[in-house]
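Table S2 (text version). Query chain:
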Amino acid sequence: MTNNPPDARQLRTILITVSIALMAVIASVTGLNVAQTHLAVEFGAAHDTVLWIINSYTLTLAALLLPLGAIGDRLGRKPMLVAGLGIFGAANLLAAMAPTAEVMIAARVAAGAGAAMIMPITLAVITSTFPDEQRGKAIGVWTGVAGGGGVLGMFLSALLVDVADWRWLFALPLALVAVALGLTLKAVPDSRERSAHPFDTVGALTSSVAVAGLIFVLQEGPERGWTAPATLLSLAIGLAAGIGFVAWELRRRDASLLDVRLFRERGLAGGSITLLAVFGVQAGIAVVLFPFFQAVLGWSGLVSTAAMMPMALMMMLTSGLAPRMAARIGARATMTAGIALAGAGLALMALFVSAADGYLSILPGMLAMGIGMGLSMTPSTEAITGSLPPEKQGVASALNDITREFGTALGVAMLGALVAAGYRGAIDDRLHGIPQDAADIAREGIANAAAVSDSAGGHAQQLVHAAQESFVDGWQQAMWAGVAVLGALLAYIALRGPKNPAVVAEPALSSADR
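Corresponding structure-token output:
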């Protein structure tokens, strides 16, 4: 437990510290996406290798979140945060100097391990340090950074690539780590919880295998194919490990890594499902927004990233306002309003998106989406952390983060597949008169259509226009799928969501009807 309660000034410093540390982790999730071509050229790497350089970080991060969050609860949150920042910083320095793709992948795996030490601890420090009356505001800031930090990190990364070199991408997380490490050593108090039970090693191992297996499926399925042997094997391993984890945790009960019985509690179930769906939709929207900006509107990567900033800023702003709203009308009503706004934003984008009208046709929907996500994320996070007892706040934070990672991977896979399928289904009727070879390439995707348009002779403009219109059709299909997901979530939360702002629950299950 924390010894002396920190004063207001120290609390502000703690919040700044964990926000900077979280920003370093989040920025590294999306940063390398803007440098895929540079990585391929620098290392002479195939597309699959480049994807591994990017995905190995998030795969490692997701797999290790739960066990490392639990270890941080026991060994001390400050030492875990310091160690995580050290490992993360060293790994990013190695990545910046990596001579080969293999070294880069190893560095990214190490960075993912360091990030898994950092991310759950940042939220656990807030929930274990801030008094009840200030905790909601602090969690609002944390969720704003977690939700909007990826877009901000991608923008800064795109700027660095444009004005310098792709290796300068690692300067951003290194600078953030240096500041966060100094502030952590100075201001963050140590807190740890004593447990009468030994560490749940079996639970830690099975949870890691389950998360890694299922995330691998979602990351690699679109590339390798959903029926490829590696995909099916990973799915089988992930599901078997997941079932084994649940069975083992039920057997361990109070000595478990994560008491799965607590999912009967409204706050934990509702908060987890909300974050899964909301982050899935957000990540999926990013997948379809960037091709729209670049291939349909013809914008650069930097301008395309900047175009995402209004949605990210709305999300960060309303994440900070959500605790006040939840205190007045309740967590369930706040989450319901947020989900409804996010769904309305998707519907606006689906109804009014147009290649001719460009950015202004989707900006109102993006703003509504950002506001809705901000309102729903903070009370969902509070519901999760408030459902687990104080000695399990590292685990609660890790569960919150795993839910986000799963939602992100699921949203990218599903909405990306819907856009691709909608595009292929729509473009055939628009390719009449196009030379066969060019038409075949154009069917593969809008970027392929743009690349091959020069070989279409007098049909070049027709081919480009057909690809743009077909992409918009696929876009609308994905948007309406997102509306359906959020509509189902809205009904669930309206009926079964937490009724009040989350408070820390006792270990028993007496709060099941809260």
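Notes on Table S2: Confidence is low (pLDDT under 50) at residues 501-514. The radius of gyration is 23 Å.
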